[in-house]
Amino acid sequence: MSVDRYDQISTKLTLTSKDVIIGTDQNFDYLKIQQHTHTSDLLNNFFAAGMVPTITRPTRVTATSSTLIDNIYVNFKADLNNIFSGVICSDISDHFPVFMFYGKEKVPKNKPITYNSRKLNDYKIQLINNLLFEKDWTFLQHLHVNDAWNAMINIINESLDKIAPLQRITIRRKQQIICPSFTRGLVKSLLIIFKGLRLM
User: Is residue 64 part of a domain?
Assistant: First the structure.
């Protein structure tokens, strides 16, 4: 495609008020822009149309040469601070694939954290111990080991529920204080653990 053809296309794009993204295999090497007048003209035409290239590294490399002939252009209406682009070094073709991401990152607000908890103190722990001490555990000897385990856990949970029942706790967004290194993934994992530990 000639420079004039690119000029015609880019001129039409100046009339739109929307964000524009153009991917090209232009065969004009920006690495030799100082040597080739047509290459310089092409870049100037894109600039005049409000378009800027996002690829700045070679996109075609051989044993004897490297060229920057593939590009992705965006218009100046886009927020250039929210553009991430690059070149993927791969031999799937004689041209390296190029890519560009564009968009603002949405930072989610902290959601309320809810979990189940028991209010325990020394007095309640002593009451739970007394309840467990009064139970007749001899029947466990006649059960299969898995059945005995389940029966024991049920008795312990019944005693806990009687003295210190589970309560739903909610920590509102404004009440949350989270260390920067304590990621949302860690918080989510801990909540899953808390929910799974019925004995807590």
Answer: yes
